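lol so apparently i was supposed to do this last week
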Amino acid sequence: MHNRFVVAVFYVLGTASAVDRCLPGESCFPDNPVVVNFGDTLEGELLLPYMPEYAQNVITRDMVWTKFPIGIVVAKSTLDVQKAVLFARKYNVLVSIRSSGHDFLGRSTAHGSLQILLGNMTETSINLTSSRNPAGEITCESGNTWLKVYEEVDKVNRVIVGGSAHTVCMGGYTLGGGHSPMSRTFGLAVDNLLEVEMVDAEGRIIVANEHMTQIKYLNDSITKSDNNDIFWALRGGGGGTYGIVTKFTFKLHYPASGVVTFGCSYPIVRNDKTEIGHIVLKKIVSMLKNMPTEWGGYLIAFGTFNSDLSWGTISLAMNHYGSYDAPTRSYMDELKNFHPEWQRGCDYQRMNTFLEYESTPKDPPYLSTFLLNTLMQMDSFTDDWIRYMLTALGTKLPQPGFLSFTGILLGGKTSAVGIHNTSVHPGFRSAVMSLSMGITPITQNTTGLREKAAEMAPSLATYGNGQYPNEANADLNNWKEEFWGSNYNRLLRIKHYWDPDNFFTCRECVGSDEMPVPSHGQGSKSEAHSVFGK
Ligand SMILES: Cc1cc2nc3c(=O)[nH]c(=O)nc-3n(C[C@H](O)[C@H](O)[C@H](O)COP(=O)(O)OP(=O)(O)OC[C@H]3O[C@@H](n4cnc5c(N)ncnc54)[C@H](O)[C@@H]3O)c2cc1C
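anyway here it is w/ flavin-adenine dinucleotide bound
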């Protein structure tokens, strides 16, 4: 493997001797015919900056991170991904990996990279007679959105743990952990992952599960071992780090006899100027402890004026995995009967299927959002935290914008898995909520908002234990500890084994700080990070 010598020197010296990756115009970069020939070998296509389709694909969902790759490989198959990896490897080109482009830290794109776009790899296959899981399994290529998968599994009367948003894809979502409206009933996405197919940094095709790792070499020979390190690392160690996962196989679950939603909203300050937010928050968090695992959902809070001139909103948007008649459904009556005179709406809604519930919310087409996050434990909900929340909701932002909190309810099945069984931060396993704050401008002007989010991130983090790397702040200093805690060292060892040259690298990903980083001739290591950042 090339570059190994450079890496060895790097370790011996203990310094970051940045390895430049090759850019168009440099003598190391392949001539035009070579690039064109490479594009012609693909089942998909190679989009270059002069093509109209390039412009359509280059914008990331979270627009603040849009960057300009040298080309976009719109992969159609695992073989396309393998070819792209081998091409980038041969010419020392930086690779970025993208499924949906939703990443809140901009990890799925980079200036000067060859972007491998998996969004057109959308095949699925269902096996209802699986020996690994009684309700069956589904294998999905990485470019599938969750809505598409929900529709597929609904056709065979099954459900699956997936994201709440329609447009999020399998890839980064699952590799970072993956929470779901159904996580309290069935766990995180990584708890439901049975197997992956991945193209590694040498272009080999890996199939890995809990019991074995199979490597298919470029000469078609195959080896198998019972080592499951790479499968463990892919269950929470983050996207863009170990390889390009082309296929994910997940457990399916039998559907419940119905689905019930429950929504309940209160103002924070009533229109008679009484502040009730702290009483409402206290009530809601007191209900988390004994909440039946059939209930999952979201705490939402924001601080704008309402039409009746009350200020701020605290809402619970819940989903119950079971019919209206199930005894666990009535658990939410406690909130329904809590100061009905304060409520701005509070009711149940009956639905037939999880798909019906999931089809209702609509994703925003594009976002420009800066996030911060913490994994709240039961003892995190102190009076001090309540004060922090209510004060933060009133924060004056440097630009017209919107500050909100979303708390994804965890616990139940997410706490039934050991802290080292998967590679997510151990704090996930005792968390009852993944609490994110989002700062979203209402115009295109984001000046000062990223700095504001970075300034507020450390104080939010003091309340919980760890952070969800998929929904966290982009400017943390202690991201290794905050994203992976005591699982980080094992993740790093596995990174060294599978990708010692840091061929795959991204912002705040395992190993990204200590391995040679691409500088593109820009000099220092911190400057080099600008290919991923601003
Ligand atoms: C509107 C919205 C709703 C969301 N809802 C949820 C939710 O309900 N639950 C939840 O847990 N999270 C949610 N998220 C966060 C989500 O998990 C992250 O945005 C995640 O990064 C999305 O993964 P992706 O592959 O779709 O995005 P991308 O931006 O394409 O990828 C994210 C990261 O993974 C890498 N990557 C992508 N695919 C692969 C692959 N196949 N192999 C290797 N690396 C890969 C990329 O390089 C990048 O580092 C939401 C985000 C948004 C914007």
